[in-house]
Specification:
Two copies of one chain form a homodimer. The first copy, chain A, is α/β, with parallel strands linked by helices. Chain A is built from nine helices and six strands.
Amino acid sequence: MQFSSSLLEKAVSEFAKLPGIGKKTALRLVLHLLKQNTGDVSNFSEVIARMRNEIKFCQRCFNVADADICSICANSMRKQEIMCVVETIRDVIAIESTQQYNGIYHVLGGVISPLDGVGPDQLNIESLISRVQKETTTELIFALNPTIQGDTTIYYIQKKLSPASIGHPLNLRVTTIARGISFGGELEYADEMTLARSLQNRLPVESYVANR
Amino acid sequence: MQFSSSLLEKAVSEFAKLPGIGKKTALRLVLHLLKQNTGDVSNFSEVIARMRNEIKFCQRCFNVADADICSICANSMRKQEIMCVVETIRDVIAIESTQQYNGIYHVLGGVISPLDGVGPDQLNIESLISRVQKETTTELIFALNPTIQGDTTIYYIQKKLSPASIGHPLNLRVTTIARGISFGGELEYADEMTLARSLQNRLPVESYVANR
């Protein structure tokens, strides 16, 4: 692409660095901003810079936060003894959007994946183990993506929490979110693994109807 | 969507204001920026703000420019007597990218469209008329989109350039870019209008082969 302004060119190439945004889309976005008020564009640019500079990560659960402790951890209305283990901040947002969960979180920052060079030390696993021991946690819910890496991570953490590893048994229920056929999904197109697991973990109809 | 950080929420809603970017894409972009260096993100935000604040519009052709006159107008290697009339800056970029055009431009800023409240006074038409009279223009090429509004605009400008309107005849060739079947297009799927026009304006095979 040929630009007659280097300011325009630089702005387009900055936008084009974002994931999923090519040169043409970047140009469309920049020309849109060019049509907006100077004030609106300054605000846009300021909000982005402030977000990156001022955002903090919760010292307890590693979720994004405006202070040292995130608003979920700081909320005394939430059940502090139920902890949901997720991969990323995005998963926290997804679960929060269901408005069905009233416990707290622990963000691992990913899953164990030796092929990508991610070992347990790169993740917030050590802090999870110590939180579970220090806090009054009674249930640990794993809400990881259903991948081999996710399952490996669950297995690793469970081993780390075993009496053999800690030295004494913990009074802790460890669960994982249900795998099964999605709402609106069709049996015929489900993969065998999902279908087999959802048969294995079948539910009594009463509880299913009650939950609807 | 539920956010545990207002900084994150604001950044997402700013991105979601951009055209074609919804809440989920905005979140993906913001989380991507959150993973980058502080310096890179400051640079991103600075480049955007600078672009909006410092960019100028060429006083001659209304293209984007870093100075009072754009680099195309200021380029003495380009044929100053051939002027291409386009709707937007984007069209300038598209034509420049072909690397086949060596004249200068005039950006109208849109086309006449009474339904959208755009009349000739909102466009850079007056300045086009005076440029053509003052400068040594010998050919005016209309490269407007093939819409009724585009055709109306061409008709309007041509009337404004007629001897009846100016008071004396101009030594000016007025052309428009060819309409026809696109390369890779199929006759069978072309609309009647395009096919009819491309039959009407058929070319001698020699010139077609020479241009390939």
